[in-house]
Structure formats: structure tokens, C-alpha cells
Amino acid sequence: MKLGILFSGGKDSAMAAYLVKKEGNEIVCLITIHSENSDSYMFHTPSISKTEKQAEVMGLPLLIKKTKGVKEDELKDLEDAIKSAIKKYRIQGIVTGALHSDYQSSRIKKICDNLKITCMNPLWHKDEFEYLNELIKNKFRVIITGVSAYPLGASWLGREIDDKFIEDVRELHKKYKIHPAGEGGEFESFVLDCPLFKKPLKVTGANFSGEDHSWKMEVEVQ
């Protein structure tokens, strides 16, 4: 099946793409929504502009759609982006990285149903710690680019998801009920390398933004 990936540059959308490709599907494009609202209910915002570099090393076309990020109204912008992908790349389905968000998955599925294409959620209800370990096992290099939940702070920015990260986040989950995979927006991530990349990316510079507790970084192909 020809598929378009709703792609934020983070671990979830990248892993979802990896899983559907392993099943024999063809990824024909990435779809990225640039939201002006850092608190968007639907779309991730830290490092979203860097998806162009990721698309480059994946060898895939990237379809970019801008939105003001107004709740519910932003869904029309998403639908327009998917319509463009259907017309330009003949996609037959959309892939999301949703884990537990009924808000996101139900709305994307409704759009896909209206457009008569398939909606695939390969990570849906996956055990969070099993998932984090699978990232490492499958050689995903993922760093944290945004935090928004106590007690996560600036020291977490730039951290790589590794065994120590999983150990630390397990403790935070026990004590503060933080979602281990950041599904509730507790933290945002960016993929520097994975099996879908022809070449890895590297961070060449980064600045802390206190306004939204994120890492404004520059990346280039290694």
C-alpha cells in the first residue's frame, strides 16, 4: 500500500514509518504540519522545521502545510494536506505515531474515512517501556528537544533515549505519573538516525528557549 506519514520528526512518527515499511508497505511521502501554536492539541512544534533534513536523508518528498493551530480549525489544514498528498503522490493511507491519544487518533481517522483512505496506527496501545527499548534495539538515535512537565527541566534537553534515560523516566513515572514515552506532551523528541535514514544527522548548535522550554537546534547531514 502507498502510504503518507504524518511526520513530526520525533520518535513516534519515525518508528511508525519504520514498522509499516517492515510490513512491506511503500512510503511515498512525509506530511508535516507547521503550527504557530506551541500548545497545539494536534501537532508537535519543537524542531518541526528540521523535518526537511530528515526527509533529505530518507530520500522522501516532504509536504509541508502551515496552520495557526486553532483547536479543531487546525483539522481542516490537516485534511487539506492529506488531500494534496492523495492528489500528488496517490497515497492510499495515512500513518500516525499515536500511542494513546484518542483525541488525535479519532480525528485523523475521521478525516481518512471521509477521504476513503486507510488510517494506520502501528504503535497504538503499545507498552511504553517495551516501545522505548525497541527504539534502542532498532538503532534509533533520539534526543529530547522539549520538556513541559515537572520535574523535567533544561538538563533533559539534548539527552539521548538510552538505557539510563529509560531508567530515569521509569522513576519519574512511578513518582509523578509522567507518561514514559511523553505521549501527554511531557517531552518532545527528534530523530538523528534510524534504519530509514541513508545518513545520520548531527546537532551543530543549540540554544535553550525559556519561553517554551525547548531546544532550538541546528542539524546537518554527517
Q: What would you say this structure looks like, in words?
A:
This protein has 6 helices and 9 strands; from the N terminus they run βαβαβαβαβαβαβββ. The chain is globular. The strands form 3 sheets. It has a 5-stranded parallel β-sheet, with helices on both faces. α3 crosses α4. It starts with a strand and ends with a strand. The chain is 34% helix and 26% strand. α2 (51-58) links the parallel β2 (26-35) and β3. It has 222 residues and is an alpha/beta fold.
List the helices and strands and how they pair.
Layout: E1 2-6, H1 11-22, E2 26-35, H2 51-58, E3 62-67, H3 73-89, E4 93-95, H4 102-115, E5 118-120, H5 128-137, E6 141-147, H6 163-176, E7 187-193, E8 201-209, E9 214-221
Parallel strand pairs: 1-2, 1-4, 2-3, 4-5
Antiparallel strand pairs: 6-7, 8-9
Summarize the structure.
With 222 residues, the chain is α/β, with parallel strands linked by helices. It has helices at residues 11-22, 51-58, 73-89, 102-115, 128-137, 163-176; strands at 2-6, 26-35, 62-67, 93-95, 118-120, 141-147, 187-193, 201-209, 214-221.
The chain-level structural class is alpha/beta
What is the rounded distance between the termini? Answer: 32 Å
Please state how the strands of the largest beta sheet are arranged side by side: 3-2-1-4-5
- Give the biggest beta sheet: 5 strands, parallel
Uncertain segments of ≥5 residues (pLDDT<50)? Answer: none
Mean pLDDT: 91
- Strand composition percent: 25-35%
